[in-house]
Design goal:
Keywords: Signal. The protein has helices spanning about 5-25, 25-30, 70-85, 95-110, 145-160, 165-170, 190-195, 205-220, 240-255, 260-275, 285-290, 305-310, and strands at about 50-55, 120-130, 135-140, 200-205. It is α+β, with helices and mostly antiparallel strands. A four-stranded antiparallel sheet has the order 2-3-1-4, with helices on both faces. The longest helix is centred in the first third of the chain and has 21 residues, at about 5-25. It has twelve helices and four strands; from the N terminus they run H-H-E-H-H-E-E-H-H-H-E-H-H-H-H-H. It has a single domain, classed as Glutamyl-tRNA reductase, N-terminal domain (Beta Polymerase, domain 2), CATH 3.30.460.
Length: about 300
């Protein structure tokens, strides 16, 4: 079975399990999760009203003055400083990511006059690394979601800008860098409108589309928003490319209060490991002779060989 075929099988299996998760409360309760404000959220509303949404922030390049947005660039800069730029391989920031997720959930509840039982947002998981900044939601009202998320990010960006000694704090996992009480100021309304423009985001809707996207990320085959226009060859033996699995694992560990989204992340990890295993995909052996792709001494596989292995 080829890499793409294996991804399809795993994607279908993940969706089947996800459907069971949506419809069976006892199964949900069997998933170990820490006690928190949202620990019993599945008991308060029917999951059938909700769907999975993914919002991926695009890069804003100075080379494209028509689509350039300073607000988008400021958001990327804030993401790199507060959530990490992905290069801090051994310095994860799970507490900061968790604080951001909780802030988004609590802000959504506040929009419902504090009555969380009526909240349109059920789960939130943030995937952040050097290549992407993506927010995955289980929500039932897409119409205002993008503007709401933009407001949250603009509020956090401005709050962090006003924080003293921030240069000393960006090297650590500091959940205090996320202001749990941040609100959009009247002077920042235009920034929210700018960031909320759909041209600045890639959006996916539905468990199937989001699951496929996460599997492609785990396999190292997805586009990288922070590097638009660049192509990245499939390198199953590269440790640099495989570090996305560690980042996804950290994201999964931080998604214990989001059991449905966590299922998608689990099967993305399975897919990412499988497409790098020559015992499962024999065609990968054709790339072994060319090295790992980690050093300048490794050779580049012929394009026809690489294309064949990628497509099978």
């Amino acid at each position: 079975m080829g890499a793409n075929g294996l991804l399809v099988v795993l994607n279908s299996f993940a969706l089947t399990t996800l459907a069971q998760c949506f419809s069976t409360i006892p199964y949900l309760r069997s998933i170990p999760r820490p006690c928190s404000l949202h620990a019993t959220r599945e008991d308060r509303s029917s999951s059938i009203d909700y769907d999975v949404h993914l919002f991926s922030l695009k890069w804003s390049s100075l080379d494209d003055p028509i689509n350039f947005s300073k607000t988008v660039r400021d958001t990327w800069r804030w993401k790199d400083e507060v959530l990490g730029d992905g290069r801090d391989f051994f310095v994860p920031r799970p507490k900061t990511l968790h604080a951001l997720q909780e802030y988004i959930l609590q802000s959504a509840a506040a929009h419902c006059d504090g009555k969380e039982i009526n909240s349109w947002l059920l789960e939130c998981v943030v995937l952040s690394n050097c290549a992407r900044f993506e927010i995955i939601l289980l929500a039932r009202d897409k119409a205002t979601t993008l503007e709401f998320l933009s407001g949250c990010l603009v509020a956090q960006t401005q709050s962090f800008t006003d924080l003293p000694f921030k240069q000393l704090q960006t090297s650590f996992d500091r959940p205090g860098n996320i202001d749990g009480l941040a609100k959009v100021k009247e002077a920042d309304r235009q920034r929210v409108s700018d960031l909320a423009e759909e041209r600045h985001w890639n959006q996916l809707e539905g468990a199937e589309n989001v699951c496929r996207h996460l599997c492609m990320i785990a396999a190292g085959m997805a586009d990288r928003p922070s590097r638009p226009g660049r192509t990245f060859p499939f390198q199953p033996f590269s440790s640099r490319d495989a570090h996305i699995l560690l980042q996804l694992k950290r994201t999964l560990e931080n998604a214990r209060s989001a059991p449905r989204i966590a299922l998608l992340l689990r099967y993305a990890l399975i897919a990412g490991k499988a497409v790098r295993n020559p015992e499962k995909i024999e065609e990968l052996r054709k790339l072994r002779r060319y090295g790992t792709g980690n050093t300048k001494y490794d050779s580049t596989p012929p394009s026809h060989v690489l294309e064949h292995v990628t497509q099978v």
